[in-house]
UniProtKB/TrEMBL annotation:
GO terms for molecular function: [pyruvate dehydrogenase (acetyl-transferring)]-phosphatase activity. Gene3D superfamilies: PPM-type phosphatase domain. GO terms for cellular component: mitochondrion. Residues 115-481 form the PPM-type phosphatase domain. This is PPM-type phosphatase domain-containing protein. InterPro entries: PP2C, PPM-type-like_dom_sf, PPM-type_phosphatase-like_dom. SUPFAM superfamilies: PP2C-like.
Length: 519
């Protein structure tokens, strides 16, 4: 083995060799095997190959009954010198298996104009995962796909996943047969706002109207006296938890995108010279974006400006400037001290540690909005993909941060290398995009002259714990544009094949006018 001179960094590693038998796993050999210096930029032997020289395992197999063993697994733990945290070295096969575990592809009963395929992948970091997505059809020939990035907990994003396609379809159904682009954009916006207003009102309706006359015990009793306690908890959680939403609606040659929060939609195209381009279809709602910060400040008196946005976060707390749920940023002032501390204690604990910081700045609500930014894009012949993804992806593609426009171009560059044929080890483009975004982020973070082993760097991102300290949930929907109705006859190739369902416009909203009640 030949290594160039000049030590760059040092990784201390331990080895654990497990041999799995029919009677259970036996553990052979544990302890520090030594210190490995990564020297220079090149090596004739990869780091992973060094770890697979295992005297402990070889001796165990030699001295035991080899007929008993059905599987051999090696677990190697290394220490990342950048933060002194351990991580597990994974083989390329193991990496691909983890990254493919959430992938699916959709097929549809009828062709959708300009849509060749829809591919999804979702990788969990939170437990349970807070990202969710939906892929449906409207009127059987139009596509609606969305990504919903939850926070505080998953209940709001789960609700949005189920309900936003219904609300959008019902608002579109009200439009005349000949409808303008502006009317469609308005329908999308109204659907978002109506759904969030229903989420808020269901919460408000749990409590008596004049809360100023109620004690803390009265507030708690308003919750505990309701006959269906499971439903009551769900309504409260769906309002307290929050969710961003980025939705793409494809109707023939027209693509409409609606965005609340900091998820993103990008169109990827290739020009006549073969150059690939990524362009953001809709801006993010985040105080980190100067234009949106200015908008947020304009909604409140000048006297609040100094305390409104701190460290590019609302009150220094939440990084999004738009969301469903998050009712603690939307309720009337008196609810902050009278109601919120008296909801079920386990739910309140999710935000209790910083609730006092909301109260200290809370003057003229709401401070978060569900009204989306809505745009229209006329599909062109050179458009190849629409990518809708949570901010967990964009953090990896943006060189400066998750809001950088170079992240849009990075997605185009990555997808330009995707090959929809048997030669691609990751045939689902959403998985291809996720993996190569990981690689790109690690290359951004390391000096150009540093040694780089893709398997090692991805292993760090996949196995360091707690993972939420290193990556967020990631959900990606890739809409492949082109000839309608690709045949997907090999389910194992793209992941699980799911039949896309048409939205049932007769499905009830959260509020049922005929019963004058809340679902």
């Amino acid at each position: 083995m030949i290594l160039s001179k000049g030590a760059r960094s040092t990784i201390t590693f331990t080895q654990r060799a497990y041999i799995h038998s029919r009677s259970g796993a036996q553990h052979y050999g544990k302890g520090a095997l030594g210190t490995l210096s990564l020297l220079g930029a090149a090596s004739a032997m990869t780091l992973a190959a060094l770890y697979h020289n295992s005297p402990a395992l070889n001796e165990a197999v030699k001295n035991d009954d080899k007929q008993r063993f059905t599987q051999t697994k090696l677990h190697f733990t290394a220490i990342d010198p950048s933060d002194n945290r351990p991580f597990e070295i994974l083989s390329q096969k193991a990496i691909n298996a983890i990254m493919r575990s959430g992938e699916v592809a959709y097929k549809f009963a009828q062709p959708i104009k300009n849509v060749s395929g829809v591919y999804v992948n979702s990788l969990r970091s939170n437990e349970p995962i807070e990202d969710h997505y939906s892929v449906d059809t409207i009127g059987s020939t139009k596509l609606i796909a969305g990504v919903y990035d939850g926070h505080i907990g998953p209940q709001c994003s789960i609700l949005i996943k189920r309900k936003i396609p219904i609300y959008v379809a019902q608002h579109l159904e009200k439009l005349p047969m000949t409808k303008s682009i502006e009317k469609v954009m308005g329908a999308l916006s109204s659907a978002f706002e109506e759904l969030d207003s229903h989420i808020q009102q269901r919460f408000i309706d749990i409590f008596p109207k004049d809360i100023s006359k109620l004690s803390a015990g009265d507030i708690r009793s308003a919750v505990t006296s309701r006959p269906d306690q499971a439903e009551t908890r769900r309504i409260i959680e769906e309002a307290i938890h929050g969710s961003c939403a980025s939705v793409a609606y494809v109707d023939g040659d027209d693509v409409y995108t609606a965005n609340t929060g900091d998820s993103r939609s990008v169109v990827v195209s290739v020009d006549k010279d073969g150059k690939w381009h990524g362009r953001r279809l809709v801006d993010e709602q985040t105080p980190a974006r100067p234009a949106w910060r200015k908008f947020m400040e304009s909604q409140h008196p000048a006297s609040e400006t100094n305390g409104l946005i701190k460290r590019n976060r609302v009150f220094g707390l939440i990084a999004v400037g738009g969301a469903f749920g998050d009712i603690m940023y939307k309720v009337p002032v008196e609810y902050q001290t009278a109601v919120l501390p008296n909801i079920p204690a386990d739910i309140y604990r999710r935000f209790a540690r910083y609730h006092h910081r909301i109260i200290a700045n809370y003057r003229t609500p709401p401070y978060l909005y569900s009204k989306p930014i809505v745009t229209h894009h006329k599909l062109e012949e050179n458009d190849r993909f629409i990518v809708v993804a949570s901010d967990g992806l964009w953090w990896y593609t943006g060189k400066e941060d998750e809001h950088s426009p170079d992240g849009d171009q990075a997605v185009a560059d990555i997808l330009s290398k995707w090959k929809d044929d048997e030669s691609d080890e990751l045939p689902n483009p959403s998985t291809h995009l996720m993996k190569h975004a990981f690689i790109l982020r690690r290359r951004y973070d390391l000096p150009d002259s540093a040694p780089f082993d893709e398997s090692v760097e991805i292993s760090k991102l996949l196995t360091k714990q707690p993972s939420r300290g290193f990556r967020d949930d990631i959900t990606i929907v890739v809409i492949q544009l082109g000839k309608e109705g690709k045949s997907m006859t090999d389910p194992g190739r793209y992941g699980e094949i799911i039949e896309g369902q048409e939205v049932d416009v007769k499905c009830p909203k959260l509020y049922n006018p005929s019963k004058k009640g809340w679902w």
